[in-house]
């Protein structure tokens, strides 16, 4: 029996490999499926109809560039308000068109194209640090520069750009048509999701479920604030409605705090409160009006249950009354142009991480360009294209993405090559392209490697529609893909020792600073300060979890070291929840904490960083009275875990 268990464990896949192949189970977004299947192959289909078949020439080249533009503009939008979708489409299309122009400078041989690619890579890396939309744009810049450097047609460059933009315009039209048929405002849906997550947290029956529900609530809050508050600050339209939604979010802060405290205390709340919270979510989504009467005051029961009822009554008034919503919207201070410029510089050229990534990207792309010139390939740009996509400038996990993209691309090459071999010269290829394109929105939500499996044959069919396909060409594609992935793994990963480590120190630093500020605001600040501090703390905890998740997909020893930090993150989350619980307890009548003890507690939190670098041998327990006692226990647990996990202690 023991031998069988040992064999079972030996056959079990490593955790980092499981993380790489893990696939989500998202719902099928049928509207997106139809849009992708129709929008992407349509320009090529039109060219085939005009030409009367699949024949190489200017007409089919025009259709190819139209499909390129449609592919960019179709992939760019994500689940967000229409204005954000249009911003991503415009950005991706503009950078893609620029890449087609710049790519002509990188054609041919010699060191000139290598220099162009290297400089362009540095620019793309810096641009990608501005925000997610610009990161998408920088990827399109690299991808279409790579394509233009080796994909030669009989069309003049200005016609290539014109057909590319026409294809993007067509795909944008399909996005607008889909938006007109969708029910509900994404901004309101995002705010309603916060109340749905609050209800789920209130209904959680055990600790693991409540911890997962609290994380979901944090994610929903971050998404809602990012969408509504930032939209309000950057757009002149719909300011009144966005301000009212911001007011709803602000008024929800006491309810969030009360729900977290109730879950931590495992205190049962009245079923009427859960129903009321779900009614609030339904009203925000526009499904139905709020019932006429809000829940009555609650004068007995656990103090967290009373806090939940009080918070429900407060937010009920705000959601049900437009004047209350407008009054609850906080006035945001205007950011000056100088502040924006300094913030931009800090995130780009002044950032050591940004500069290091720019060098890595430039090195990999330069090596790929040299390989493009030396390889005797029918489509020599494929190596450069593979490197650009695998080393996507978004500062994610290089190893995990390279393995997933490499495996997905290899399988996708086989699928695309098989279709070309079987259906070569037949219009049925366009139907196959549409079916593969329709799978992209589902695959993107499931797994990055799975997305590559379906994206690669779409690109192959688009570019090689008239190219005679043989086993030799398939072999070239596979070899080029392997070379591109090898370049990324060697020159973008192995040569950079900092990529082997789990860079959680900075994320932990940000978390401890935010947690220290939360403790200060909780017992010495006002409601607005406490709300901002709580949001900042949970946001930094989310970033810490994200960094950990990325490193879990790396091979040992990186994934092993990262996994050791998971209990620390859980302890820090519980510390944040205990601060919220203490705030609710003081509102419920518990004595205010002694400020000297608060200061001792804050020093212990700040010492977490010192414990990471130089773990101390002092195991003295942190003591505190009253509402601070649970916080002290959680901080003490976090410090013990950090000291046990820190590299200095492990080496002893």
Keywords:
disordered N terminus, mainly alpha, globular
Structure description:
- The protein folds into three domains: about 30-180 and about 350-500, no CATH class; about 185-330, no CATH class; about 505-650, no CATH class.
- It is about 75% helix and about 0% strand.
- The chain has 30 helices and no strands.
- The protein has helices at about 1-10, 15-20, 30-40, 40-50, 60-75, 80-105, 110-125, 130-150, 155-180, 185-205, 205-235, 240-250, 255-265, 270-285, 305-320, 320-330, 335-345, 350-375, 380-390, 400-425, 430-445, 450-465, 470-495, 505-525, 525-550, 560-565, 565-585, 595-615, 630-645, 645-650.
- α3 (about 30-40) packs antiparallel against α21, α10 packs antiparallel against α14 (about 270-285) and α18 (about 350-375) packs antiparallel against α19 (about 380-390).
User: What is the helix/strand order?
Assistant: HHHHHHHHHHHHHHHHHHHHHHHHHHHHHH
User: Which stretches are poorly predicted, pLDDT < 50 over at least 5 residues?
Assistant: 1-11, 232-238, 330-335
Output the number of helix runs: 30
Structural class: mainly alpha
Radius of gyration: 28 Å
Give the N-to-C terminal Cα separation.
Answer: 36 Å
β-strand amount: under 5%
The description of the largest β-sheet is: none
Question: Into which percent range does the helicity of residues fall?
Answer: over 70%
What is the typical, i.e. mean, pLDDT? 79
Integer tally of domains: 3
Global morphology: globular
Number of strands: 0
